[in-house]
Structure formats: structure tokens, C-alpha cells
Amino acid sequence: MATPKRLVVLVSGSGTNLQALLDAVAADPTGYGAEVVAVGADREGVEGLARAERAGLPTFVVKVKDFATREQWDRALTEATAAHEPDLVVSAGFMKIVGKEFLARFGGRFVNTHPALLPSFPGAHGVRDALAYGVKVTGCTVHFVDEGVDSGPIIAQGVVEVRDEDYADGGAALHERIKEVERKLLVEVVGRLARHGYRIEGRKVSIP
Ligand code: GRF
């Protein structure tokens, strides 16, 4: 069995996508093909970090406000991530746009999950924006990160139907249904990338 690929997961919030990855690894430590080696965040006190600590994983926090410039923050995030020698970096609800240095180091192996069907509704409010537009289906997109906002090559997408009652709570229930699909998709995609490798040609991602 090949050595598991090393994952660093970045979080900003509840970390249920991180948990799904941790559960997948725990369910099949040799067969899954990857292991989480560290979890990073841009803020303290989030449940995502607590999940990592409960799993006995090293964590690091790199806050924008602790640095004079965004470039310095980006360098510190790059170094903190690189210290764990990841094969893949996963942004699982990490609510920051990384900079040039991070992308120079991890571009082409930095995966993000977004709660809308890109290229529609990029940015921090994908669920709310899709609902406001009145779409009948939305979903989630797992993609490689490039220098734009949620604009990198798409690896996989999952579809979720919008219900009339989703308008009543501003999208909270819809986001929960999207996250159910998103967690499964992220686990499946990261496992396939780790086990089979992949090619990125222009915008097309192929996994053999
Ligand atoms: C996910 O829907 C992600 O796409 C979005 O924020 C959510 C994070 O959820 N950006 P969690 O922290 O993994 O529970």
C-alpha cells in the first residue's frame, strides 16, 4: 500500500468538512490514501480547531491582524503550512483569500470547497446569493485554487434542489443540505486525488 498523502486542512469555522475527512481516514487508515497531518486556522476558538485537537493533531493559527501587511500574513501562513510538508492543502471553510506566496508554494495542490455551483455565486455568500437570484438548483463545487476568488479549475460538483421554504430562514436550511452533499463530495474527491493522482490542463482536471 502506498504511503498516505499528507493533508493540511485550513478552517475558519465549525469544521464539519474537516471532520468528514478525519472520519474517512479513521474508517480506513490505509485504504483512504491520505491522512490529515495538521489543521490551520485564521482565528482562535473555532470548533474546527477543537476537532483537530480532539483528534490529537497539531494546529496552527495565523491571524491577519497580527501582521502589518497582508503579504506578511500570507508568508506566515505559507511557512506554517509548509512546516507540515503537505502533499495537498484543503481549504474547508477557510474564509480568507491566500496570496501570491501561498499559491507559488501550493498552487496546483490547494483544493477548496465552495457552497454553490461555480462559476455562479463565488465569494463569501454563495448560498445567500444563489437564493436571492431565485435559482431552482444550487450545490457545491470542489476546485483547485488560483489567484481569483473561487475561480480555479473545477474537480467535482454536487447538486442540491432549492425548496420554497428555503426562503423563510435566509438559506440556513439550504446551506445545511448543501453541506451534507459537500462533505461527501470533498471526502470522495480528496481520496481520489490522493490515491490516483491527477492532471490539470488549462481548466480541465482529470483523475485517471
Ligand atoms: C462550507 O459550506 C464551505 O463551503 C463554506 O463554509 C462551510 C464550512 O463548513 N465556505 P464547515 O466549517 O466545514 O462545517
Descriptive report:
This protein has a single domain, classed as Rossmann fold (3-Layer(aba) Sandwich). Helices cover 35% and strands 24% of the residues. It has six helices and nine strands. The strands form two sheets. A seven-stranded mixed sheet has the order 3-2-1-4-5-6-7, sandwiched between helices. The radius of gyration is 17 Å and the shape is globular. The two termini are 18 Å apart. It binds 5-O-phosphono-beta-D-ribofuranosylamine. 5-O-phosphono-beta-D-ribofuranosylamine binds next to helix 1, strand 5 and helix 6.
The proportion of residues in beta strands is 15-25%
- Counting H and I runs of at least 4 residues, what is the number of helices? 6
Briefly note the structural class of the backbone.
alpha/beta
Q: Which oligomerization state do the chains in this entry correspond to?
A: single chain
CATH fold name, please?
Answer: Rossmann fold
**3D shape:** globular
- The CATH homologous superfamily corresponds to Formyl transferase, N-terminal domain
Largest sheet, spatial ordering of strands:
3-2-1-4-5-6-7
Unreliable runs: none
The gyration radius over C-alpha positions equals: 17 Å
For this structure, what is the CATH class? Alpha Beta
Number of domain modules: 1
Helical residue percent band: 25-40%
Largest sheet: 7 strands, mixed
The appropriate CATH architecture is 3-Layer(aba) Sandwich
